[in-house]
Amino acid sequence: MRLSKYMAFVLPGYLISVGLFFLITLLFDTEVFSADPPGKYFLGAIAAVFVVFGVVYLSLYWKEKLPEHGKSIVEVRKEAILNIKDESLLAKIATEDPNPRLREKARERLQEIHTEA
Hints:
The protein is mostly helical. The chain folds into 2 domains: 61 residues; 44 residues. Helices cover 74% and strands 0% of the residues. The two termini are 33 Å apart.
């Protein structure tokens, strides 16, 4: 679950790092990469766009203005918990899951199973 928490930083981190790499290679004449003046300006513009897009994405993420598509992982897991009938699995989720909302949902499902029986 920790990976999904940091996944939103992978795309902007990649965009910013690639953009900065090409900007730095354009500023310093290196053996890794060299470009002639017409291509140099074009590559510099593309690199700057990469950096700007990465920064804009991060700012939208931190302001929580990115649109969400589909259900979140937590919502899908909550629905799955409602379908579980194995009490030992529910007890394990209720005690060991890192998400408190899912632990609570598993406890509610356990109580529901006990009242049905």
